[in-house]
Design a protein that fits this description.
binds flavin-adenine dinucleotide, Rossmann fold, 5-stranded parallel β-sheet, 7-stranded parallel β-sheet, globular, 2 domains, alpha/beta
C-alpha cells in the first residue's frame, strides 16, 4: 500500500480552508519526495459550505486525495465529533504521518487524537523533515527557545502540529485533480458533551487579525501603562496596522494574550514590525523574526532587539511615538 501523509484541512468560521493547510501541503511535498512519493491527502470536515471553492483550493495546493466528511451537524467545531471522524479515518487508511495546523482548534484536536490512538505528537513545530530511516523528524524550540529539538515518533501515525506562517505556501498551482472521497460520517455513537450556544468575537481580533496584518505595532513592558498602549493603537491606526504585544506587556495586563507574539503566543510575518519598549528576548524574537522589515524603538542602546532590527531608534518611546504619529497624520492628510 502506498504511504500516505494526511493533513487536517481546517476551515474557518465561514467554511473556507485556512492558509496553514496550504503551508502544510507545501511541506508535505518535500516530505513525500523522501518517503517513496507518499500520497498527500487532506481531511476536510464540513457542513458542505463553500465546498466547491475548498475543493479548488485543495487541488491548487497539490493534494492527491481529499477525504470530505460531510454532515449538517458539522457546521461548528466540536472536539468530540471532529476527533472521532479523524480517528475513524486514520484507522482505516493508516497514514504514516498526520499533520495539523497549531491553531486554537488544532491545538485542541491534535492531543485528543494522539492520546486516543496512543501515538506521539510533536506540538508547535517549526520545521519538518524525513530522516535517513524514513521517519518524520519534527523540529521545535525547547528549553525556553534556547535549543531546537528534533523529535521522532515511534508509533503511527507520526503526528505533528505546525504553527501558521512558519512554513511557506507554494507559489505553484497544481493542475492535477485530486481523488475526492466524500462520505457521511456516523455520528450516532459519539457522545457530544459540549453545545455551542453563541460565538462572541474577541473585540481585539475583530478589527484586523494580528496574524494577517501587514503592519504590526507591538509593545512591551517599556510601554508601561494604558496610555502607552493607546499610543501604539494610534500609530497602528494611522498606518492601517494592528497592535501586538510581548508577554511582558500581557503579564502586566496591558494587552490581551490573544495578541501576544512569540514562543507561547502567535507567529507573525508582517511587512513591517515595529517593536516599542520590547527588549528582544529569544522567546519574543522567534515569533516575529520572519517579518520583512523590523523597526525597534528602545531607550537602551544595548537591547537585543536591535540585533534583529533593520532600523533602530534609541530613545524614549513616549517622546518618539507622538511625533511619529503626528508626522504620519500630516502626510496622510496630504
Ligand atoms: C517558556 C517561555 C515562553 C515565553 N514566551 C514568550 C512569548 O511568547 N512572547 C514574549 O514576548 N515573551 C515570552 N517569554 C518571556 C520572555 O522571556 C521575556 O521575558 C519577555 O519577552 C520580555 O518582555 P518585554 O520585552 O516586554 O520586557 P523587558 O524584557 O522588561 O523589556 C522592556 C524593554 O523596554 C525598554 N524600555 C523601557 N522604557 C522604555 C521607554 N520609555 N521607551 C523605549 N523603551 C523602553 C527597556 O529598555 C527594555 O529593553 C517567554 C518566556 C519563557 C520562559
Amino acid at each position: 500500500m502506498a504511504k500516505e501523509i494526511l493533513i487536517y484541512a481546517q476551515a474557518n468560521r465561514s467554511g473556507k480552508v485556512i492558509d496553514v493547510v496550504l503551508e502544510l501541503a507545501n511541506a508535505a511535498h518535500d516530505l513525500s519526495e523522501k518517503l517513496e512519493n507518499a500520497c498527500i491527502s487532506a481531511l476536510l470536515i464540513t457542513d458542505g459550505r463553500n465546498l466547491d471553492e475548498n475543493k479548488h483550493v485543495l487541488k491548487k495546493a497539490g493534494f492527491n486525495k481529499v477525504y470530505i466528511a460531510s454532515s449538517e451537524y458539522l457546521k461548528d467545531y466540536s472536539t468530540e465529533y471532529y476527533s472521532q471522524i479523524a480517528i475513524d479515518l486514520i484507522k482505516k487508511i493508516e497514514p504514516e504521518i498526520f499533520l495539523i495546523g497549531a491553531t486554537t482548534q488544532g491545538r485542541d484536536l491534535a492531543p485528543v487524537i494522539s492520546t486516543k490512538l496512543k501515538t506521539g505528537l510533536t506540538a508547535d513545530c517549526t520545521s519538518l523533515d524525513i530522516n535517513e530511516k524514513g521517519q518524520l523528524a519534527a523540529t521545535r524550540p525547547t528549553f525556553g527557545g534556547n535549543l531546537m529539538a528534533t523529535i521522532l515518533c515511534k508509533q503511527f501515525p507520526q503526528m505533528a502540529t505546525v504553527r501558521p506562517k512558519v512554513l511557506k505556501k507554494s507559489d505553484k498551482n497544481y493542475e492535477q485533480e485530486p481523488l475526492i472521497i466524500e462520505y457521511s460520517p456516523d455520528l450516532s455513537n459519539i457522545n457530544k458533551r459540549v453545545e455551542l450556544l453563541d460565538f462572541i468575537a474577541n473585540p481585539q481580533l475583530t478589527d484586523k487579525r494580528i496574524d494577517e496584518a501587514e503592519i504590526i505595532v507591538s509593545g512591551g513592558k517599556g510601554m508601561k501603562n494604558e496610555a502607552g498602549f493607546k499610543l501604539l493603537q494610534e500609530l497602528a491606526d494611522v498606518l492601517g496596522g494592528s497592535v501586538g504585544a510581548s508577554r511582558g506587556a500581557v503579564d502586566m495586563g496591558l494587552a490581551d494574550s490573544s495578541i501576544q507574539i512569540g514562543q507561547t503566543g502567535k507567529t507573525v510575518v508582517p511587512k513591517i514590525y515595529i517593536a516599542c519598549g520590547i527588549s528582544g528576548a529569544v522567546q519574543h524574537v522567534v515569533g516575529m523574526s520572519g517579518s520583512d522589515k523590523i523597526i525597534a524603538i528602545n531607550k537602551d542602546e544595548n537591547a537585543p532587539i536591535f540585533k534583529q532590527a533593520d532600523l533602530g531608534i534609541v530613545g524614549d518611546a513616549f517622546e518618539i511615538l507622538p511625533n511619529l504619529i503626528q508626522k504620519i497624520r500630516d502626510k496622510n492628510n496630504g
